Amino acid sequence: MNLAWVEDQGDRLVVVNGNSAKRGALTPDLYDAIQQAVDQAQDVRIRAIVLTSEGPFFCAGGDLNVLIERRKLSEDERRARVELLHDVIRAVRGSPVPVIAAVEGGAAGAGLSLALACDLIVAAKGANFTAAYVKAGLVPDGGLTSALARMLPRPLATEMCLLARPVEAARMTTLGVVAELVEPGETLTVAQELADSLARGPREAQGVIRALVGHAYEQFEAAQLDAERDAMVRAVAGNEAGEGISAFLEKRKPSF
Predict the structure, then answer these.
(1) Does residue 220 belong to any structural domain of this protein?
(2) Residue 214 resides in a domain
(3) Which of 40, 95, 131, 209 could share a disulfide with 160, CB 3.0–4.6 Å?
(4) Which of 190, 126, 131, 193 is nearest to 156 (CA)?
């Protein structure tokens, strides 16, 4: 069964994360679907890409059952796995058209990285944004520390990463991270309306604007992606991750 796919809706592409059984956890299918959408967006007919989830949660990040298996891999193999995620983040950042995240329920871990890589976020009231890595003895990847440092005050970014405290969509809206705060169940509709609005604008100018804004952070983010990759490669094979992942899967409190 395909766990993600691309829907062609005329002047926009909608990437649907179908892994609802695992709260939208990342899958190779989702990586492929996002890359496919970015490639298809080279067509001048396409004016925007929307990322959404079939289930009630946008994306819970990495599947810990997969990560616990990753501990058995060599360092080079672990590095390659993180790079697959980073390639997706780079693809979203380098998209020729704006990318909009429709966040129902919330975004956690690398799911938060993915949402923050988008140009615009539409979030449901009550949705939470969580940097959950530390709970499993892991460290952020997917450009998360880079994105948080650009978008939030340092104390809040530090709080999110060190304490894994969720931040509600309403607060993220006040901070300017979320573009539209809507009723639950309406994020995709509003994201599609934003895509329609973009479709009425100048495609070439929009692309230049995206590039200008992106380049303002590009060098910092490029270095940060590499730093996060190296830290995650080490962390996932460490004792803390072994205990943290096991505790999560066994539904008990970890003993670090």
Answers:
(1) no
(2) no
(3) 131
(4) 131
Per-residue pLDDT of 194-237, as tens digits, reads: 999 999 999 999 999 998 888 887 777 888 899 999 999 999 99
Whether the pTM exceeds 0.90: the reply is yes
For residue 90, what is the domain's CATH number?
A: 3.90.226.10
In sequence order, what DSSP letters do the residues of 119-160 get, joined into one string? SEEEEETT-EEE--GGGGT----TTHHHHHHHHS-HHHHHHH
The answer as to whether 20 is a domain residue is yes
Paired strand residues for 181: 123
Q: Which residues contact 79 (CB under 8 A, 6 or more apart)?
A: 229, 230, 233
Q: Which position has the token pair 């590095």?
A: 79
Calculate the CA 256 to chain-centre distance. 27
* Predicted local distance difference test score (pLDDT) of residue 231: 93
> Can you give the residue range of the structural domain that contains 46?
4-184
| Angstrom distances, CA of residue 66 to CA of 114, 193, 237 | 18, 36, 13
> What domain count does the chain have?
1
The phi, psi pair for 53, rounded to 5°, reads: -125, 145
DSSP-H helix ranges across the chain = 28-40, 64-70, 75-93, 110-117, 144-151, 154-163, 169-174, 187-199, 203-236, 239-249
